[in-house]
Automatic annotation (TrEMBL):
<feature type="domain" description="Asl1-like glycosyl hydrolase catalytic">
    <location>
        <begin position="126"/>
        <end position="355"/>
    </location>
</feature>
<dbReference type="GO" id="GO:0071966">
    <property type="term" value="P:fungal-type cell wall polysaccharide metabolic process"/>
</dbReference>
<dbReference type="InterPro" id="IPR053183">
    <property type="entry name" value="ASL1"/>
</dbReference>
<feature type="region of interest" description="Disordered">
    <location>
        <begin position="48"/>
        <end position="80"/>
    </location>
</feature>
<protein>
    <submittedName>
        <fullName>Glycosyl hydrolase catalytic core-domain-containing protein</fullName>
    </submittedName>
</protein>
<keyword id="KW-0732">Signal</keyword>
<feature type="signal peptide">
    <location>
        <begin position="1"/>
        <end position="29"/>
    </location>
</feature>
<dbReference type="Pfam" id="PF11790">
    <property type="entry name" value="Glyco_hydro_cc"/>
</dbReference>
<dbReference type="InterPro" id="IPR024655">
    <property type="entry name" value="Asl1_glyco_hydro_catalytic"/>
</dbReference>
<dbReference type="InterPro" id="IPR017853">
    <property type="entry name" value="GH"/>
</dbReference>
<dbReference type="GO" id="GO:0009277">
    <property type="term" value="C:fungal-type cell wall"/>
</dbReference>
<dbReference type="GO" id="GO:0016787">
    <property type="term" value="F:hydrolase activity"/>
</dbReference>
<keyword id="KW-0378">Hydrolase</keyword>
<feature type="compositionally biased region" description="Low complexity">
    <location>
        <begin position="68"/>
        <end position="80"/>
    </location>
</feature>
<feature type="compositionally biased region" description="Pro residues">
    <location>
        <begin position="103"/>
        <end position="113"/>
    </location>
</feature>
<feature type="region of interest" description="Disordered">
    <location>
        <begin position="101"/>
        <end position="122"/>
    </location>
</feature>
Amino acid sequence: MAALKLFNLLALASVVLLALVSGPTPANALTTDRSHVARYARDHQAIAAAKRKRDTAGSASGQCKPKPTTASASSAGASTPTLSLSSSYSHGYYLHRCNSYPTPTPTPTPTPASTPTSGGKKWGLGWANGDASYLSTFAARPNVGFLYTWSPYLPTDIYGLEGIPMLWGYDQISDFQSLVVPGYAKYVLGMNEPNEPSQSNMSPADGASLWQQYINPLQNSGYYLVSPACTNDQAGLDWMAGFFQACSGCHVDAIAFHFYGTNAQDFISYATQLHTTYNLPIWVTEFADQSFSDGAQASQDEVYAFAGTIANFVDSTSWFEVAFPFGVMSDLQGVNTANSLLSSDDTPTSLAYDYFG
């Protein structure tokens, strides 16, 4: 009898244990955390804060980067035309004399599907300020025709400007797909500094894949497609060359770049090299008079002179379509504050008037 009772107890314990083990999965194990997806309307300043080339001294500046170790167009046997830049670019970094640029074999569509139609205006706002009321003040400046936000989102009211969504990188794919549909805008910007580990950070092949899947089809909806924007250094040039080699059959209407340096002539030479290489219109979607070397930053008067030279070049060059100076924000994130375009009272600075009219 004692043995039978023991057997019954063991059987009951087995049933209880089986019920516990096969119970429902806790709800928190099924939860997907999407808190990393920045929402423009709620927290677009976080997107601006992600623009942290400032934390990688030298990578987005006029100085040279260390020689890339990843595969690039030059490693595939491309020739290397020269572009002479100032000696201030050295600063102890790898110097291919800072003037050896690869010649890729680009395959963009030679003739753009359309051309910018913002009343002939060539200047734009890199806007990280959400629905701030003072956007109307900047939008009213006579030279301003464009706006982008480092994201697919646009302010509720853009006051007649051409709003341009961007596919910044991987984290924005879902938002980009939801928002960028026929009629949402006329232009789209590719990835933000994909050659930079602190930015959208992807290989040229991955960038080509992203472009082909999410951006290239937009040409069929009438969008004007502007390339990814790389930094003005050898790594940026190599990435762009590799992108076009990987992106066979891709449609690209214009080439974008970023420029941080203290010599306006270097800006002109760099833009001219891109135009000569790809035979496409040029956009600059960030630029400032900024040294990321150990040298002194430009004075306010030097920044004014830098701005004047670039403005004259942009306005007088037919193949230079749109320019976005960096600085319409209260926190320039490490960039020389002499480049500020937003005053403490939320009005344009004197420098802003130089660019925007």
